[in-house]
């Protein structure tokens, strides 16, 4: 599914990640590592958000560097700590994603209902708690027809009930052929979402377990 070749990322001369080769198969992949190990950096890089050295290929032919616009259409990313302008509302954010991905509004309405954000998502983001903001970010990531969802610490800051709902939605996405990448320093709770592949993020690299 995803092939990572000669990947290297540095910040101001400090090496963050060096991955000679990594194959991420189809299905659900869990990337575990302590805070600061490079999980977020890796997810942002393969989602086309930050620059890096090396190559990221989808199915052996779609190259992120050579076809960045097309590549970004197949992968959606949810930040571990999402940030949006305080004056916008959650609805403004979701309306924007709806236009970008040209999706059916009924899809968003269903997610809004499931995550219980209808009571607040028309108010300014500056008034949100971290959990409220996280729910908007997760909904935004699931809009459209991405082939890969890269979710960075998706279970942090949201309540247990919302966690269970999220994992159920992701299990449904998998049944529809979507690949799920999860970065977390926690153990994932038991649910209908079955993790197929485990990766360890440590010592400035990523290895399959």
Automatic annotation (TrEMBL):
Domain ABC transporter stretches: 31-155
Protein name according to UniProt: ABC transporter
Regions annotated as coiled coil: none
PANTHER family: ABC TRANSPORTER ATP-BINDING PROTEIN ALBC-RELATED (PTHR42939:SF1)
Record's keyword terms, sorted: ATP-binding, Nucleotide-binding, Transport
PROSITE patterns with a match to the protein in the record: ABC_TRANSPORTER_1
ATP-binding among keywords: yes
Pfam families linked: ABC_tran
Highest taxon, organism lineage: Bacteria
Lineage, broadest ranks: Bacteria, Pseudomonadati, Bacteroidota, Cytophagia, Cytophagales
């Amino acid at each position: 599914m995803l092939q990572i070749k000669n990947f290297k990322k540095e910040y101001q001369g400090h090496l963050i990640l060096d991955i000679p080769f990594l194959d991420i198969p189809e299905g659900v992949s869990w990337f575990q590592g302590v805070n600061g190990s490079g999980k977020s950096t890796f997810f942002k890089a393969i989602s086309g958000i930050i620059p890096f050295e090396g190559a990221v290929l989808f199915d052996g032919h779609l190259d992120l560097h050579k076809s960045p616009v097309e590549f970004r259409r197949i992968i959606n990313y949810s930040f571990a700590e999402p940030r949006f302008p305080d004056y916008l509302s959650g609805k403004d954010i979701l309306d924007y994603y709806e236009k970008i991905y040209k999706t059916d509004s009924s899809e968003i309405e269903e997610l809004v209902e499931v995550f219980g954000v209808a009571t607040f998502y028309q108010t300014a983001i500056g008034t949100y708690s971290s959990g409220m903001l996280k729910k908007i970010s997760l909904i935004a990531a699931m809009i459209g027809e991405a082939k890969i969802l890269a979710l960075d610490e998706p279970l942090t800051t949201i309540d247990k009930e919302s966690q269970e709902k999220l994992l159920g939605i992701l299990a449904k996405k998998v049944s529809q052929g979507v690949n799920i990448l999860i970065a977390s320093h926690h153990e994932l709770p038991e649910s209908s979402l079955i993790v197929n592949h485990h990766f360890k993020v440590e010592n400035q690299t990523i290895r399959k377990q």
